[in-house]
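Dear colleagues,

As part of the handover before I leave the project, I'm documenting each prediction I ran so the next person doesn't have to rerun anything. This entry is a single chain, and its sequence is reproduced below.
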Amino acid sequence: MNFLQGLIAPPLSHTDFVLPWLVISGLSLLLWAYYYLEGRKRIAAGDAQIQRRLQQFMNGLGWIGLMGAIFAFTRWGDLAIFAWQLWLALWGLAVAAFVLYWVWFLTFKYPGERAAYVAHLTHQQYLPKPKR
């Protein structure tokens, strides 16, 4: 019961970790908004694979930022169920899983996908163009 009480009721003050939490959430939402408003045109214009991966990354980053901001504001305002410390722990696990997935993907899977994509583009440039 003591473990569950520590997860539900905040053991310190109601503002513990709210400022770093809001900074991380705010930066992730800012990056997400910049990418969808301007970044798609500037960052990876012309490379479909990089655009697809950046869009996948930014979607995850946007959700993490949005949920983090919601949980931080409800914890700061002591609002019912979302002020529980359990949500802070689950959000932290989600951030860790997101980071670990992208480290794994960029280390092991992406180099093979990129090589296959470049080989496909090289192959496509030597095929005859369709006549109209």
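The first helix runs from residue 2 to 8. Residues 11 and 98 are 27 Å apart (CA to CA).

All the best with the project,
I.
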